[in-house]
């Protein structure tokens, strides 16, 4: 299945695995890339640029296909050593970077000089246009359904994707809520050149996370996510659990006066406990509404090939009927 995205990144299928904290290790990225998609290592899960260099080397030993690195530009006081991480990416020979969070503008010259293709993930048309303007090669348009940070505009993909198609010249992929063949077809129909999936890839055999996490995703329905940290303008969609219900309660009580200190014990340092130890109530962790569409734990190859094959069948069989005179 050829699209502008498969051409841009030199991949077989227009399916990308978005960076995910404590999920996007070499094992995850290599499994997706070996299956013909684009796997992505999560840069900041690696504590230092040296650790990232090692993770890149490990991924290279596991696949000879293209893979990328995610760099998330967080709001916050102590900025990570971004130049150090970029050096590790450049020296590691990685040619694709997924940026997210704040604008990557300050780092574009360094990335472009190294011949790196940049796909920026953002949640609005205006941020997508800014990404295009500063030289990004593609955009991941992340709708309100998404796991993680949907921004503050709350525009679902049924509106956001065709709006992006109206305005953007560079290729974009549909991100947020994606997990099935019919959604890939819909995304293509709405003007996207592929899909980016986060949550769906966690429920795969190769995802290097505790079995409890995978089982929780299969058990969850589309009703089981919550939005937290809205009063802090750092909204995150997470899977509901005891800790998350506590956050929701605190935020309801304190309203706009909620501070990060009020909930820090329920959102800080949670990822290793959930993803590695399987402590499902340890705190808030990102999860998308697509959980309602996750019913199994396939290999990445089964998942990606299943989506693409079924998508082609939907186009040639179900949809072609509607085009008949
Ligand atoms: C557990 C988890 C952790 C994530 N961590 C990050 C991250 O560190 N950086 C980032 O840019 N996006 C992160 N994301 C967002 C994904 O890359 C992707 O944009 C999102 O999951 C798409 O929505 P979906 O979950 O509905 O597929 C995370 C998502 C999940 C589910």
Automatic annotation (TrEMBL):
Keywords: Dioxygenase, Flavoprotein, FMN, Oxidoreductase. It comes from the Bacteria. The keyword Oxidoreductase applies. The keyword Membrane does not apply. Pfam families: NMO. Transmembrane segments: none annotated. One of its GO terms (molecular function) is nitronate monooxygenase activity. PANTHER family: 2-NITROPROPANE DIOXYGENASE (PTHR32332), 2-NITROPROPANE DIOXYGENASE-LIKE PROTEIN (PTHR32332:SF20). This is 2-nitropropane dioxygenase NPD. It comes from Tepidicaulis marinus.
């Amino acid at each position: 299945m050829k699209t502008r995205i498969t051409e841009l990144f030199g991949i077989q299928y227009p399916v990308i695995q978005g960076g995910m904290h404590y999920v996007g290790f070499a094992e995850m990225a290599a499994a997706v890339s070996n299956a013909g998609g684009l796997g992505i290592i999560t840069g900041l899960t690696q504590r230092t640029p040296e650790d990232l260099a090692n993770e890149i080397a490990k991924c290279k030993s596991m696949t000879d296909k293209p893979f990328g690195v995610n760099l998330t530009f967080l709001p916050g006081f102590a900025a990570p050593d971004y130049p150090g991480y970029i050096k590790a990416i450049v020296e590691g020979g990685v040619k694709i970077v997924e940026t997210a969070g704040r604008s990557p503008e300050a780092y574009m010259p360094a990335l472009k000089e190294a011949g790196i293709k940049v796909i920026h993930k953002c949640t609005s048309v205006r941020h997508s246009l800014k990404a295009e303007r500063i030289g990004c090669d593609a955009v991941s348009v992340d709708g309100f359904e998404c796991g993680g940070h949907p921004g503050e505009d709350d525009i679902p993909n049924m509106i956001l994707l065709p709006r992006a198609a109206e305005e953007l010249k560079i290729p974009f992929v549909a991100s947020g809520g994606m997990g099935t063949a019919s959604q890939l077809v819909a995304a293509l129909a709405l003007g996207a050149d592929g899909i980016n999936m986060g949550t769906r890839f966690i429920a795969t055999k190769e995802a290097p996370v505790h079995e409890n996490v995978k089982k929780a995703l299969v058990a969850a329905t589309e009703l089981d996510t919550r939005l937290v940290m809205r009063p802090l303008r750092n909204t995150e969609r997470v899977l509901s659990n005891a800790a998350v219900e506590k956050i929701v309660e605190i935020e309801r009580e304190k309203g706009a006066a909620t501070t990060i200190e009020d909930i820090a014990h329920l959102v800080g340092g949670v990822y290793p406990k959930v993803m590695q130890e399987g402590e499902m109530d340890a705190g808030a962790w990102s999860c998308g509404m697509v959980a309602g569409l996750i019913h199994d734990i396939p290999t990445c190859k089964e998942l990606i090939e299943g989506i693409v094959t079924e998508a082609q069948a939907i186009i040639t069989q179900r949809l072609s009927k509607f085009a008949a005179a």
